[in-house]
C-alpha cells in the first residue's frame, strides 16, 4: 500500500509563529502512515499539486481579503481545483483542513459569508459553542459544549449566505461565545464545507505545553498583561492547564481529521466510512 502524501500550506509570510511548529508536531504523530511537505505559499508562492492526498492550511497575519494578486490568486486557484476534483467522479477524494486565516479566505472565496475586521483583536482562549449541527459533528465528539479554543484574530466571518450554504451542502458547526451585553453578531467558528473539507476560525493545533512555555516568557508575559490585563492572562494559563479545555481541543480536532482522512484514503475500493 502506498504511503499517503500530506501538504502543509504555510500562510504566515515568514512571520514568527507557533502555528507551523504545532501543526507539524501533530502531523508527525502519523509519520508511519503519511509523508509530509511544507509549502511556503506567501513568500515563495509554493502551492502543492493534486498528487497530495491531505492538505492542512495554516493561519497567518494581515487581512484575509488582501493579497499581492499573485500568491493569493494561486491559493484560490488551488482551492477551486480541489473543490472541482472532489465534485468529479475522481476517487479517492482530497481532504482539506483550513485554520483561521485560511478559513476566512475560504469562506470569502466560496461566497459563504462576509469577512470583516473586528472592533478589537481577540486574544487568548475562548468558549466556542456548538450549533445543533455541530453537536453531531464527529470531530467535536467528546468535547464540552461550549468547548475551549485558542483564538487570535483581528478578522471574523459573519452573516452567512444561507442559499450558498445550501447549494454547496456546507454546514455551520460552531459560533463564538455568547455575549448578551454586546449587540454584535456572533462570528462563525467552524464550517464543514463538504464531506472532505473542514475549517475552523480558531487554532485547534495550539498545544498546551508549547503555549505555556511561549507566553510565560517574561517579556511576552509583560506585553500581554499590558495589552489585555492580568485577568485575561491568568484565564489563558488556566485553560492551557485544564485537561478539559485546550488540551482536549488539541488532542481531538486536528488529529481526528487526519485520522479520518487516512482511514478514508486507505479503505478498500468502493468502500466508505459511515
Rg calc = 18 Å
How many strand segments?
Answer: 11
Give the amount of beta strand, in percent. 15-25%
Looking at the structure, what is the overall shape?
Answer: globular
Helix content: 25-40%
SSE order, as H and E? EHEEHEHEEEEHEEEHHHH
Q: Look at the helices and sheets and give the structural class.
A: alpha/beta
The CATH architecture designation of one domain is 3-Layer(aba) Sandwich
Strand order of the largest sheet: 2-1-3-4-11-10-9-6-7
Assigned CATH class of one domain: Alpha Beta
Stated plainly, the CATH topology of one domain is called Rossmann fold
Q: What's the total helix number? A: 8
| Main sheet overview | 9 strands, mixed
> CATH homologous superfamily of one domain, by name?
Class I glutamine amidotransferase (GATase) domain
Spans of at least 5 consecutive residues with low confidence = 270-274
End-to-end CA span: 22 Å
Overall mean pLDDT: 92
